[in-house]
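Dear Dr. V.,

Thank you for agreeing to look over these. As mentioned in my earlier message, I'm a first-year student in the group and I'm still getting used to reading structure tokens, so any feedback on how I've presented them would be very welcome. I ran two proteins. I've put each sequence directly above its structure. The first is here:
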Amino acid sequence: MRLTISASGIRFGFDAEVGLLDGFTVLDEGREIAPLHRAPWVGTGEPMPEGAGPMMARLGGDFFCAPFAGREEDSPLHGWPCNAPWHVIQASGGTLRAALGRPVSGAALLKELSVEDGHPFVYQRHVFVGGQGRVPVANHANVSLRHGGLLRTSPKAAWETPASPQESDPARGRSALRYPARARDPRVFPGVEGSSDLTRYPWNPRHEDFVMGLEAPGHRLGWTAVTRPEEGDVYLSLRDARLLPMTMLWHSNGGRNYAPWSGRHVGCLGVEEGAAATMLGLSDEADLSGPGLLTLVPDGTAEVRHVIGAIAWPSGEAVVDLHEEDGAIAVHGEGGAQRSVLFRAGFLGED
């Protein structure tokens, strides 16, 4: 089942078979902005390899992962939230509510995606009811950067790769960063051949890599801004950094040779915001500015909130600052560009 949810100036699709937010589009300054990626095999009917999860055939858009980068018993990678059907409870008035058909660590999982007139954002809530234990969680937005992009974030204490590379067998693919490695400056991150500038995409002609930004302490609003200069827009990802202290970046740029990737999955930047200390290669949870996992509440609820958005950005410059003010998000560019756009006050907590 695929549904469309809309408000004035914004719309997105929802694939209830796997919980995928797809077709995210904003009408801003007289043109449509659709920043999310879709894998080249999506919609072609191409058979997926044996063992591939249901999400693989639909790869793109934005989806929620629990456990992020892991499996729960016999679940596919990233868990059941993005690999099992959802029951739609409401799809009207700019809001979609749905319930996952399978438990996650014993919890029922509810999803709420909503839009408002004039707001260039999708407001996302995932609520775990009951359950037990701690779970790595993150959203998994996939940004289309076929023509390149500029990446900036809220302040980070450090950048770090996991213990092992995405691809270690040259016959199957190629990773270009060092694993594990750590740097304070993303512009000079240790690579296999010299350093790599993680603030630009692409920084390597063909590779598959994963790197994490660990939030610096002392602020609430965590943000990632990906400028697409050729398209003249910027993708925005917002969260409460006190609860989700990690920005995880999946660089997928033709670095996998095997099916279904086959060297053709290029220009994709996964912007994955979450709490997933299980991915750390050199640090541990105590080094994070917030919890490294989501703690479920057996007799209550645990909630994850996240926001994605997009705005016209004709200057094509990198974003230098983003902050919340009086029911709006103010975006400032390195060259002096400025925008102020409507935002749901209080959705990501209060200072």
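The second protein is here, in the same arrangement:
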Amino acid sequence: MTGLLVSVRSAEEAREALAGRADLIDVKEPSRGSLGAADEAAWQEVLRAVAGKVPTSVALGELCGDAASANVESLAGFDYAKVGLAGCGQRNDWPREWASLLSRLPRRVTPVAVVYADWRAACAPSPNEIIDRAVRLECGAVLFDTFDKSQGALASHLDVEILSQLVGVIRDRGMLTVLGGSLGPATIPCVMPLRPDYVAVRGAACPEARTGTVDQCLVRELATLIDCHTSGSSSARFFWKNRRFA
């Protein structure tokens, strides 16, 4: 069963996402990049708004950026935390730095590895390198995302066959798979045959793209779309046929 992850930037957006049947609430600040970290105050406000109704996660930014100095102790109460590895592809010390950051996470916060589909443009380590290291660091999940949101969605950078192979490796290693990267109504059906544990969205849940505001009606429609494909129904294609996604 595939769940819907919605990234929010505030408690108000978290409540909208919950009302729309989101299965996991993620906190990030989209104006600060693909995995832009929100302020600590926003972390706590969202945590209170969700109040344990669904799992929660936090984006910490990039390891080569602000993530290295993040106050990870304040993440207590969240279920997952993720950090990007953009810029790490040219550094030999990224595995050590990543391990050091993850070692500081509160005990009940599960680390999430992030694979950028456009990893070459992001100067990030390759998907295979990250997945291999994620296993060693006992990450609980792997998120596929895109670093540059202006250059197309997930499948524009990773062939579906290759993505399927990577998902199989992740599943065999006992980790969850989360598929994101500018997915929307036109592209979510393409990844559903891979049976991800979660589909992650931000822009598709906002009337004015990813820097807009999460709308519960759009979230509910996305949840319905995922439900239709999870149950094998073809009605989802007709449900979305006339919708415009920016």
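From my reading of the second output: The beta strands are 3-8, 24-27, 56-62, 80-84, 110-116, 141-145, 176-179, 198-201. The chain has eight helices and eight strands. Does that match how you would interpret it?

Kind regards,
E.
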